[in-house]
Amino acid sequence: MGIAAPRFTSYVPLTDLTPSPGNPKRHEIERIIESIESHGFLDQPVTDERTGRIIGGHGRREALIEMQSRGMRLPDGLLLDDDGGWLVPLQRGWSSRTDLEAKAVIIKLNRLPEAAGWDPRPLAEYLEELATGDAELFDSLAFSDEEMNDLFRKVDPESLPGGPADLDERQDQGAAGGDTGFADSGDNDRSRTVCCPACGELFSPGQ
Length: 207
Hints:
Layout: E1 8-13, H1 29-39, E2 46-48, E3 53-56, H2 58-69, E4 79-80, E5 86-94, H3 99-115, H4 120-133, H5 135-140, H6 145-154, H7 164-175, E6 194-195, E7 202-203
Parallel strand pairs: 2-5
Antiparallel strand pairs: 1-5, 2-3, 4-5, 6-7
Helix pairs in contact: 1-2
């Protein structure tokens, strides 16, 4: 006899996703649309079985409705029903005990991930790798100047892989006949350089 999973995924019509009234979380719908369009639908909404309303995924619901109204293609991760409607993966199985608990969980699902913040050095290394490897992906993260300046105050760019110290070492190796790790792209490619968010050096994406 199989064991019933306490949490499971069901594909439900987008039109059946009922939002919780008065949800206080703001959403950047255009950024959510860009992420879904680029990477597919990755984060399932969560439903409250007691109320039949979602407690997580309000922004994703709004983004999908907007995408459908614009005639955009079906995102990866969704299905089509027989009538061409969009079917969305929904996490099922949880029930609130009271309306107050449901409201508390709505806040927690949004607040807890943001409360811890970021570990500065790994974040700086990720951003440096993205900026030098794929400028378009880096731009899609939409880090503000204020956020980047705050990161600069916490992380010494000299200590990062690809930072000035590392670059100087590779240049010294190149002068001695070694490989610097950077191809000579020529003058025509210099316009495609980007400024590394972590160390301030100019790099050509993909090199």
